[in-house]
Amino acid sequence: MKPVRNHRAHRYRGGRIDIVNQNLIIEEPLSIRIDGRPYAVVMRTPGEEIAHVAGFCLAEGLVDSPDDFAAIGYCSEADVNVVTATMTPQRRRKIGGLLRRRGFVSQTSCGICGKELIDDLHQIVQPMTLTSSLAIDRVETAVGLLNSHQALYRRTGGSHAAMVLDPELELMSHAEDVGRHNALDKAVGKVFMAGRLQRAAVIVLSSRISYELVQKAARAHVEIVIALSRPTQLAVDLGRRLNMSLASLGKRGDLLIYSGKKRFSGTVA
């Protein structure tokens, strides 16, 4: 299924109204089933569903390794809007509590406070050691790679993008989606299922850094997250608790570091 659909719109310009064709990004539900039972429904752009669900399961704490999947695939060849992930018996026994609390990370109920949320996330996410670093003068190179891999955004103006880089800033994967969390799940899921996640060092995002994106990066054991927009306060709180490095680019090209300054070489105390 194509991720874009053409739509006619009325454009007002210079006192005149005319009809123009616009490319709009597709948004459709994806039903995620775990061991044959409904687990979550996410709104996403069609495409790369298997990688999407793999990355989603990693972020939720349902799997730690691709080997935890007994199988993962579409429920039928004709329906790409339903994906089932089947766990191995050993993994199923280990995550029984998570399955009973279906979607407790991705679909946290309204009213829970930031501290409660962070405490809850610590059940599946642990603080990181400092093993990665990034020279400040290479940050723009990393962000430039993201800009060159946003074909869907250039067509529609309505997508988010995520990218995974190795320690040499070589591109490992990238993805675009109507949802920023979906884009990251897809990008991480590709590297995860290829068995190369241990090489991932930097994540670059086109969106702001929300707590969900910090959670997903932490579950992928990626220590450095760079975005084009500022993080939320909850994201920074979580990043500090998890010993992660969060940064964004300012409007004038300034690098703003919110946590984990030591990973950015070239900084001073």
Chain-wise SSE layout:
Elements: E1 4-13, E2 16-25, E3 28-34, E4 37-44, H1 49-60, E5 69-76, E6 79-87, H2 89-94, H3 96-100, H4 114-121, E7 134-135, H5 139-147, H6 151-156, E8 160-165, E9 171-177, H7 180-193, E10 202-205, H8 211-219, E11 224-227, H9 233-241, E12 245-249, E13 255-259, E14 264-265
Parallel strand pairs: 3-6, 7-14, 10-11, 11-12
Antiparallel strand pairs: 1-2, 3-4, 5-6, 8-9, 8-10, 12-13
Helix pairs in contact: 1-7, 1-8, 7-8, 8-9
Adjacency order of strands in the biggest sheet: 9-8-10-11-12-13
What distance lies between the first and last C-alpha atoms, to the nearest angstrom? 51 Å
- Fourth-tier CATH superfamily name of the largest domain: Cytidine Deaminase, domain 2
Q: Helicity range of the residues? A: 25-40%
- Spans of at least 5 consecutive residues whose pLDDT stays below 50 are 107-112
Number of domains: 2
- Architecture of the largest domain, CATH level 2? 3-Layer(aba) Sandwich
Strand fraction equals 25-35%
Question: What is the C-alpha radius of gyration, as a whole number of Å?
Answer: 19 Å
Give the SSE order as H and E letters: EEEEHEEHHHEHHEEHEHEHEEE
Quick check: average pLDDT? 87
**Annotated CATH topology of the largest domain:** Cytidine Deaminase, domain 2
Largest sheet: 6 strands, mixed
Number of H- or I-type helical stretches: 9
Name of the CATH first level of the largest domain = Alpha Beta
The number of strands is 14
Class inferred from helices and paired strands: alpha/beta
Q: Estimate the global geometry from the Cα principal axes.
A: globular
